[in-house]
Amino acid sequence: MMYRIFICFFIISVSFLFAEDQTESAQKTLRKAVGFYREHVAAEGGYLWKYSADLSLREGENVADAQTVWVQPPGTPTIGLTLLKAYRVTGDTYYLDAARDAGNCLVRGQLRSGGWTYSIYFDEEQRRKYSYRVDPVRSSKSTKNVSTLDDNTTQSAIAFLMELDEALEFSDSKIHETAVYALEKLLETQFPNGAFPQGFSGEKRDDTAYPVKPANYPPEGTEPTHEKDYYKYYTFNDNLAWDLNRVFFMASEIYGTKKDGKLNLNEKYVNAACCLGDFMILAQMPEPQPAWAQQYDFEMRPCWARKFEPASITGGESQGIITALIELFLFTGNKKYLEPIPKAVAYLEHSRRSDGKLARFYEMQTNKPLYFTKSYELTYSEADMPTHYAFVIDFNSSRLNQLLKQIKSDRLKQLEIFRNNYRNLRLPQSKAQDVAAVIAGIDQRGAWVTSGILNAAKSNKKIQIIDNTVFVKNINILLGFLNTGSKTETIIDPKN
Predict the structure, then answer these.
(1) Which of 49, 137, 189, 203 is a good FRET partner for 146, with 20 to 30 A between their CA atoms?
(2) How does pLDDT run across 7-45, given as a tens digit for each residue?
(3) In the CATH hierarchy, which fold is given to the domain comprising 190-426?
């Protein structure tokens, strides 16, 4: 009997010592990895996407130099939010300071129009081409001042700066003012019908020129709008509205007020989200295709964007809009945001290809799938498609239907799950073997080196690289393991 007790005690002791040892190793690995990224990978506090293992080659979406950083995810805001997570979990201000470095980088890259473009330049000759707020006003008409909402670029920058502002307890005037200025410019950019363009320059407009009307098809015999400056029109491209509303949800909370322990959401940001939701409802196409287009002209008719984005009904962004409407219902409790969904899901089900997938684009009225050839000719055939763009996409209607069932049965529980997503609080349930692999995989410098293609290497062959996505994934595994499970404040139900 005593022998069994001794064996049990020994196993428990060894397990405890192992867990304690792995915790210490995880903490050291976390600090080592962040230190390497902050001190050796960063440029002016910001980040690109990928680097050669020796850091001599670097790129974002395009090849870049050591005086350029990227805003578009997984660039500077993505790394900044990861650093903030490290601070939340550990309480170590080293990570907060590293996040502040990234925030100050974004401050220096904000355009006078209020947002950001894909990258930020610190080379003086390059900087003169842009109307950065921190720099002197440029007199040249060619100075670039168009902020982009494409690919979650400006949205991710604002989201990170808001989170950083809150973590700093609103004490850093530069960070705070940059975030608030960006939000105010966003509100000014919103059209009367609730829509947003893909890009905005901050110029004043006459809102009476933009009537509020529901979506419709171009009159028979009329060619859809096809303009070079398509970015000025109403758009859903690349889930722009979905990303924007998450920014507004976050802003309503972070810049709300607390009284008697109760959080009162900032109504102007709640209203902006609701207005964008109202546009989603307006933009649903009538029968026989009750889904959505990627972009609309000012007559609310589907129009062209890039040369491979035709005026059509989209099987892609339509799914993002459905999810955005579900999130609006979660946030507001208003059932009107659920009303467009059944018809849209039924239409998408009906539009499946023989392989169960959806085409990215469907011809208006006929509902024939549309594709492009490698020479960018519009066609009904998928035999010669370019590979840089998803013209065929998945559709998981069972996931949507399950989500709809869950939100109707327990909205507040699903709201809390959703909040953990838009507030970037979610961490994985890290397995011991995954943590061990992350710890073992870091090199002496503090880098996780993997194999991949780097355009900057001017070769299709894989080389040794350092990749932001790998960094973020591994940091999250460490944080998931180190997280003590501390609770965050529950959001106040806006409906109540």
Answers:
(1) 49
(2) 444 333 334 344 558 999 999 999 999 999 999 999 999
(3) Glycosyltransferase (1.50.10)
